[in-house]
Predict the 3D structure of the following.
Amino acid sequence: MEVGYLDYKRDPVAHVYAKVLDDLVEARLALEMLGRDLIQNASAKAFMSVKSIVSALVVKNLPKSLKGGWMRGGGLGMRTRVTQHQPLG
């Protein structure tokens, strides 16, 4: 395995693990910033950390979600009715 480069297609488990681990370290840094009253920096760092963790988990579970019918209304309990749009004018 190469040092410093993770390919999602070659090893998706290691890629997601490394991303989540990195983002947990970033979240810890956000807590330290918060402890030093750096509120704006801490909130930005925390937001980016959570966003990145969610993104990694979505990428990991996307094939399962698509296969299970998530896009057809089976995943979130949401059903939408698709209709043809009428012109506004």
Observations:
- Confidence is low (pLDDT under 50) at residues 74-78.
- The CA atoms of residues 21 and 53 lie 9 Å apart.
